[in-house]
UniProtKB/TrEMBL annotation:
It comes from the Bacteria. Gene3D superfamilies: Periplasmic binding protein-like II. InterPro entries: PhnD (IPR005770). It comes from Microbacterium binotii. This is Phosphate/phosphite/phosphonate ABC transporter substrate-binding protein. PANTHER family: PHOSPHONATES-BINDING PERIPLASMIC PROTEIN. Belongs to the phosphate/phosphite/phosphonate binding protein family. NCBIfam families: 3A0109s03R. The keyword Signal applies.
């Protein structure tokens, strides 16, 4: 499979951004004016497809409804066709708020001057590992799988913090592997880098099965379409309601180094006042019982906290090692 370069030409960026929108353009402010124009009279919130795309906008509706009420202007949620499309939509002024993975937060800031305002916490953690999953534990597990909360782990991956079990990933050679596109830190960048550092040629030593979202990677392993899959920890919980035995049939056997959490970026054309109102509304919402439940249903977020943009540099360096910058 050819690697898609993350940096698109200007014309391609506009086309990609335009393809994102499921609703009309938001407002008329020129993104190049850095606040010189009036704030838009409506906003678009871009979401990336970490799970089933068809249901994500509906799942996020309480969030966009809250922002609409707090800000006094309509906020519409849309799902990008892939991670990179969300960045390019923000760069083209077609979306003003982005819920983005760590690499895309860095790109939106570096390429288009977006402000990274919040990062997520999950159960008190500000980082997470990518996980290697399999339906063939006899091959990949050097010990007996152990169970945590109905999910099976082996090779020390039950510690739920990376790195763990990476000595076992050399066994992936020759396997069919479900993976997301090159823009995904957990679904591509970190696992592919780990394989390459283990001596696996990821172009010739494995058979790639492209998938569009983390839940699809889990299901590919569950259904036997792939022997191994990559995802964020622990994407099995997304599909457990539909396939209750996923934690028994899909075993996590390794975890990568920790990845900075995803978060929220705002386009530079919004006034500082509106940026602050959005930031405050989201942070306050994440601290409420209702908001925490909604954010967990969207991206397993338990809280939104002030961002540390410098923490994103490590993901950019990892992508650069793979030639994705």
């Amino acid at each position: 499979m050819n690697i898609t370069r993350l940096r698109l030409g200007a014309a391609a960026a506009v086309v990609t951004a335009a393809s994102l929108l499921l609703a009309g353009c938001a407002g008329s402010a020129d993104p190049g004016t850095s606040g010189a124009a009036a704030d838009p009279d409506s906003l678009v919130l871009a979401l990336v497809p970490s799970q089933d795309q068809n249901g994500l906008v509906d799942t996020a509706k309480p969030l966009t409804d809250m922002l609409t009420e707090k800000l006094g202007i309509p906020v519409t949620g849309v799902v990008a066709k892939d991670y990179q499309a969300a960045v390019e939509a923000m760069g083209a002024g077609q979306a003003q708020i982005g819920f983005l993975p760590s690499l895309q937060l860095w790109q939106a800031s570096d390429k288009y001057g977006a402000k990274v305002v919040l990062q997520t916490e999950r159960n008190g953690n500000i980082t997470y590992p990518a996980q290697f999953m399999t339906n063939n534990p006899d091959k990949y597990c050097d010990d007996t799988p152990v169970e945590r909360d109905g999910m099976l782990f082996c090779n020390g991956a039950d510690a739920m913090k990376g790195p763990a079990g990476l000595d076992s990933i050399t066994k992936v050679k020759g396997a069919k592997v479900a993976m997301l596109g090159p823009g995904s830190p957990a679904g591509y960048i970190y696992p592919v880098l780990a394989l390459q550092e283990a001596g696996i040629n990821t172009d010739s030593d494995i058979e790639k099965l492209p998938v569009t979202a983390n839940d699809a990677s889990v299901l590919a392993v569950y259904n036997g379409d792939a022997e191994v899959g990559f995802s964020f920890w622990d994407a099995r919980t997304i599909v457990k309601k539909d396939v209750p035995d996923v934690g028994q049939k899909v075993v996590v056997f390794a975890m990568t180094d920790e990845i900075p959490n995803d978060g929220v970026a705002l386009t530079s054309d919004l006034s500082p006042e509106l940026q602050q109102k959005i930031t405050d509304a989201l942070e306050e919402y994440s601290s409420s019982d209702e908001g925490s439940k909604v954010l967990q249903s969207i991206y397993s977020i338990t809280k939104l906290a002030p961002a540390d943009p410098a923490s994103l540099d490590v993901v950019a360096r990892a992508a650069q090692q793979l030639g994705l910058q």
